[in-house]
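Entry for the shared binder. Reason: the reviewer on the internal report wants the predicted structure included alongside the sequence.
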Amino acid sequence: MQLRNVAIVAHVDHGKTTLVDHMLKQAGTFRENEAVADRVMDSNDLERERGITILAKNTSVRWKAPSGEVVKINVVDTPGHSDFGGEVERTLMMADAAILLVDAAEGPLPQTRFVLTKALALGFPVIVVINKIDRGDARPDDVLNEVFDLFVDLEASDAQTDFPVLYAVGRDGHAMRKLDDPKVNLQPLFETILEKVPAPKGDASAPLQIVINNIDHDDYIGRLAIGRVSQGTIKANQQVGVLKENAKNRAAIKVLNTFEGLKRTVTQEAQAGEIIAIAGIEDIDVGDTITDLSEGWEGRALPRITVEQPTIKMRVGVNTSPFAGKCKASKFLTSRQLRERLVRETRKNLAIKFEDTESPDTFTVLGRGELQLGVLVETMRREGYEVQLGNPEVVTKEIDGQPHEPYEMAVIDVPDQYIGTVTERLSNRRGRMMKMNGHGHGRTRLEFRIPSRGLIGFRGEFLTSTRGTGLLTTFFDGWEPWGGMMAKRQLGALVSDGQGVATPYAMNHLQARGEFFLHPGAEVYEGMIVGEHNRPADADVNFRKEKKQTNVRNHGKDENVMLAVPRILTIETAMEWIDADELVEVTPDAVRVRKQILQCSRRPRRSEAIEEAGSRTLQSNAPPPMAD
């Protein structure tokens, strides 16, 4: 049976996973009476809740070629958000070509450029699919020109720039070779894959070589190593060599799986080009090579997979708040358990790293962005971990004896009336406008070059200032000399001065001083942040105050308490909001923010604490202690 291996890549929300849904349905993967959820490839709870792909997935479909032969097409669905670029880099290694989806209205965006750069560097032929042509503001001809310009800008070869183009409505399962072709099904896409995607290369009789691209877990058969057979043939129960970075081990293949639709199917043999999942080797990591034990096996290691280095770091420590351990769903509270969990994460996710610190209860976790770190913490929270987080900071490095910080290109699409607001806010964060283009539909695209730390906490502010109508995407754009201290949050915090329960009476008298983060009846403790002050300084407030009871009859009506709706913080919005002297407390049932130093009498003024923490960050990569 013939094979084709293809990866679907695109910017976030351009329709990759929805298109794969219809490929599976039209290829007959599901029974006619089988109930199938939308975005079936996004099986993770967080992916379904957020509407984004976080983890790369493998699946396959079978399609009959014009010759009558059935061809198996292995499909890899990759994340579209730049924070999860490490998933893209790893999984592209399992493919021989890429399907690039581009939104017919938005055109190529930063992650489009990122994934296309990786695909072109591997020499892949690319099939361009201009999706969502049914949008009212679709401009497919202009977008096609922009895609071609992007290929040229990325120095694609002549063969690569001669790419086939399809037009699609992925939501409805339609693809056309021309805009005026009838909308029927995805047959033009399947035919183009068979025509343009090369069959896998590799000699099935050569010595076995497999590089592991992904790690998964099965409750019944344990750790799964996923990779593509580069050459040779692998069999179930075969004795193999595992070539690690600093070791060479022997092991046995207990279970050998291939991918059929959304399921793993047990097989006895797989040849060069097939994507497989292996069970039975517990000590195996992403980047390791599996080979047979024929003569010279110790020297057959394939190049290890590398991904771009992290640009954001964050302190993660054991929860030390007065409420630590009180949640009934909490299972993991110790530094040993936290460290073991971080080790497991780094073994399967090359884009995440962690370092020990001088404190045994605190670790530094490094990643690509706030979303990636926030998803990691949210996953741990659902597993039963309690942690506290420091504010995200940029990773600095020394070049020619001078500290340098990462810079990013921020590409922004906003309605014309918000151009001034967005420009002002980014300029205050040391952003510099590089380009400005009007679409002609009342929207304008802006490009800013800005320090990465200038974007920390900006996403929420951006959505608020554009009333949710703006689009913001970023990508890494090099290193520049450190630019000095940068103001992050202009307003101070409302901090509880004691432990107890928040009362409507107290909140009613305090709501003129700022915006609250919790509802009446919530438990609070000294040093816990209960809201945002409407002035730059912090304010210690009594959230527990109750109305005095007397036996004197009041002829007037009782006071009717009307409280504004509080701003409930998620993990990511809390990470964005806190300053250098504050922490996010995460438990299975709550997300709270607090001061590092809980006692009011011991806590320095906000400006002094931030200045001290900022200078310490630049002087050393070691984070400050996560106190109390």
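Summary line for the report: Residues 30-44, 47-56, 618-625 have pLDDT under 50 and may be disordered.
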